[in-house]
Every structure is written in structure tokens, then in C-alpha cells.
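Appendix B, Record 12. Input sequence as logged:
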Amino acid sequence: MISIDYILGCMTNEKNYFVDMWETCVDDHKKRYNRVKLRNVLKKMEDFGYIKKYGHKNDAYYEKSYHQSIEDTVGFINNVIFTYESKLKTALKHLENKNIFVDISKNLNSYKLSKFAKDDYESLLDGMSGLFELSSSILWAKERSDDDKLKKELANCFKQIKAFLDDTNQKLIRYKKTNEIILLQRDFANKIPKLGYLKL
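Logged structural output:
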């Protein structure tokens, strides 16, 4: 995982080129991050409205993004929420009445994804991961804000995401066996980042 605050702290220039950021941003062991993984994190930060990308590949550079008003901020977040919710609804529609895992061992350490559910399940996990990270980002932004109105709006956005994820979870496990429910919950738990962090 990598902290949103750390990435923003690495952006010390008006134009922050990817190559420079790759050389500047290092992990706890002072090692550079994998280029592809760093690009993916920067893409998430762009999706969440923290930065804006210009250019392509190694010529790409990033600028910190600032919304003009609370309404702009909340409107942007709601658009992101809608995108992930739509993805999850589509995947869930195909998974509710299907076995997702097959050949499950008694100790649950060995299993396979059903070939009939694989694509939809991966899409579901991707959408859930996005909403978990967005929630982490929202709570982090809420903690850092001094604006009571913005904090209230961010809290409402978080409640909306939580309610949707709870509902999705209940629908998904409704007709599943106990062993499959345990595997689902295990997968979901692995997608939850620390507050203010994004998965690499």
C-alpha cells in the first residue's frame, strides 16, 4: 500500500513528470516502486480527483487538482461512486444465483473459481476494491478538512458507499453455502486498505 499524502508530498513542482516521481517516490526500504504499479496508483489518484494527468507515457506529467467549490468536490465524488456502483450491480446480477467457487477443500485452503463466474467475480472484486479505496480516501480527506460543511458532505458520501456495499454483500451471500461465504468474506477483507492509503 502507499499513502495518498506521500504521493502528494512527492509532487513538489507545478509539473511533476512521471520519471521524476518514479525516481523520488520510494518505499520504506528506500527502493523505487514498480513502474506499472506506480502508474496504477497515480491513475487511481486521478480517478479520485487528487491529481490531473497531461501527456503520454514517459512525457506524462501530473499536477495537483483543486476543486473550485464543495459542490464540485461532492459532484465529482458522486460520479465516481456511480461508476463503481454500476460496475458492481452488473457483476452482482450475474453472480447472485451462481456458484463462484468450486472444488473447495475442507480446510478452505484449496479451491477454484468457477469458469462460469470468473469474469464477473473479478469485475465485482475490482469494483469493491475501488469503493473501499474511495471510502479510505474520503475519510482521509474528511479528517484533514477544516470546513464543517465539506466534512458533513464527505460523511454522507461515505455512508452512501457503506450502505451500498452492505446491501451488495447481503445479496451476494444470500444463497451461498457457508464455505463459499467464508471465502467471499476473506477476499473482500483483503481489498480493504488503511485509512488514506491505496493498494499497489
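The chain has seven helices and seven strands.
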